[in-house]
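Annotated sample (chain length 225).
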Amino acid sequence: MAETRPPPLFLADALGLDFLNSIATPVDTPVEWLADGADLVAWLRHADLVPQDIADTMLRTAIPGELDAVAAQARALREWFRHFVRGHKGSPLGPDSVTELAPLNQILARDEEYGQIGMAPQCGDDGHAHDEDCTPARLVWQPARRWRSPESLLQPIARAMADLVCQEDFSHVRACEGPACTLLFVDKTNGNKRRRWCSMAVCGNRAKVQAHRERKRLEKAAAAP
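Output written by the structure step:
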């Protein structure tokens, strides 16, 4: 059967929330991007959380049903974290949240992350920057991970969740105001933090169209004898 789903959504400005948005109703129909193990691997690749060679190895070597079982764990983790985020969004996280996050810490404790010293990408043969996005050659710390089993695919997800709770101000975590939309995001707009929509191209535009129709309806009603 041809793929009918849209590509995964990455509009939350935080991967931990993008993971929650891996099931969403961006328009009218709910979309699940983690229906099985292959979906999970594909989402991790879209998120750039797993190297391509690791993804290929997992798909090739996992025993039947193994990746599907990990995808089921990922969905359960997603819904547990959704409950936490929705319960705390709009306010700074307090000390009590550490206790609530114990299940996440249990997953993180199983990680086999390490690091290596390597070279940063070079800008040219002379090692000098030729544009503002390029850095001169230098030694850098490069994080890596031992991917010993399909369950290790949960680790980058758990780390994205940890980054969300440790690095983002939950006062700026928002839910899209679209009537049927379920998407979450971090409001990183400048100034008064007034982002209301997951995307101006989707829910924002629909709200503008609806507001326009309502104004026309009221104008027509006012003009009627």
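Annotation: The radius of gyration is 22 Å.
Annotation: The chain has two domains: 15-112+148-223, 113-147.
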